[in-house]
Structure formats: C-alpha cells, structure tokens
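Lines hold sequence, tokenised fold; shown next:
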Amino acid sequence: QVQLVESGGGSVQPGGSLKLSCSASGYSRFYCMAWFRQAPGKDRENVATIHTYGKVKLVSSVNDRFTATKDNATNDLYLSMNNLRPEDTAVYYCATALNPPLGHSMFTPCPGAREPYKHWGQGTQVTVSS
C-alpha cells in the first residue's frame, strides 16, 4: 500500500536551514505530490506541489527560501528550507494524490487544498526559535 515517511525535521535558529525528506513507496504513478504544514492552532496549509509532469509550485511566503524536488526514480520528495523564520514553525507533512479530482484530467494543475491528497505521512516537526 501507499506509504509516506517524512524525516529531517528539527530545531534551528532563525536564518538556519533544514532539508526534509519524504520516503515514498507503494506506487509508481501519481497525479500530484505536495508538502503541507500545520502550525499550532492553525489549519494545515499547502507549502509546495509537484505535478507528475514536472511543474513545481511553492506558495508565495516561501518561494524565495524553499525548494521542492523529487527523485524521479523513487518518487521520494524533498523540501530544502533556507533562511528559516519563526513563523515557519510547524509540523510538515508530505502527501500524494494518485488521481486528479473527479471531472479533472491529469493535466489539471495541482490543487493546494487538502482533500484531493488521499495519502499522508505522519509529519515531522520543524521548530525555528532563538
């Protein structure tokens, strides 16, 4: 079955860097993969999406500091985070949508909403504090 396992979280000072990894197994073809994060008391929010045809999109709050990449051989996902800020503190999750939403094709851009992503990892904590 589909399994996603995140790693690489930790505690860093503001301005520091971390690289998160998501080990993916149980599938070869997919529609979109994504990174989400959830800060205490807040909704889970999208950080980055990677389309099966290659397009990578990051939200505006991180697109000049984070980089999302994927290993095409394994579907493992990575999130390189630089110049971290206290507001980046959250549990980070990777997720995958094997199929597009009903009525959409595989060419539909990746959604930022949670619902289409049916498979999730357990999350990894990132804490940015001085």
